[in-house]
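Example record for the data management plan.
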Amino acid sequence: MATLDLTPLHDRHEALGARFAEFSGWEMPLQFSGIVEEHVAVRERVGIFDVSHLGKVTVTGPGARAFVDSCLTNALAKIEPGRAQYTMCCDERTGGVVDDLIAYLRSDEDLLLIPNAANCAEIARRLSAAAPGGVEVRNAHREHAILAVQGPFSDETLGGVGLPTGHDYMAFDTATWQDVQVTVCRTGYTGERGYELVVPWTDAGRLWDALLSAGQPHGILPCGLGSRDTLRTEMGYPLHGQDLSLDITPVQAGAAWAVGWDKPAFWGREPLLAERATGPSRRLRGIRSLGRGIPRPGMRVSADGQPAGTVTSGTFSPTLRTGIGLALLPPEL
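Corresponding structural encoding:
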């Protein structure tokens, strides 16, 4: 059996009594005090997540911004340095999604990409194979950890340790905390106001401890991947491998807003333009249970008594107190 990767905070999670689960080759905390309790903390107060398993890929050198823009779907020309952007890496031939990721534009010659854990090596490989001379692509997966502080009191929590707050959505800057460089970006995967912090791998433990302490007056809880999943499903945020995949295009997933349709080049442009013109054969939609059942991935969805589609993500919504999910359905529904 292969050994699972561990984040730099694993010992702290053990000390907090976390229940662990395998996720994309990593042993990650599934929950601490309980999924519902952690979910409510993020919706009403503040929670902190260790998402250090997420990938990190750097692209540097003259023309780095233009090169990435010619590969990934969204239009990097829309943003300025100091901004981050949601984008996708699509397959050239089919338009299916290799991965969705966040691109941090540090300058025209320096980008940090945050793909999903399982796809980091593949994103780095594809970019490396296509990179022109002078542009360096590097898999920096274990150089930095990522902490997500999410919830209405996230600003107060970061302010308690002296980190900057008040950014516009998807804006970031770099601050010095105890002689450590920390990138603070106002984004997240919960739908609440919050921040993601990129910190050197070896310094993540000290920052985690400091944030937990600063958040105590605001009812902070450490949160695991269980509540991360319920929170993102409530918001309709897709999970790669379920709601986005090589078999599910951005057009089908309702993510066409993250495609720079007017760009002259990006991977998968031709098949995606063709699908957009004809209309997709299926669309990702939000669903809610009519009874006590909870949608689960792979379940059938019926319309007028006939099979209509398949659930891609499903869970119990602590906010709505009922089962919810995402499903691929005929466009007319």
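Summary line stored alongside the record: The longest strand covers residues 306-317.
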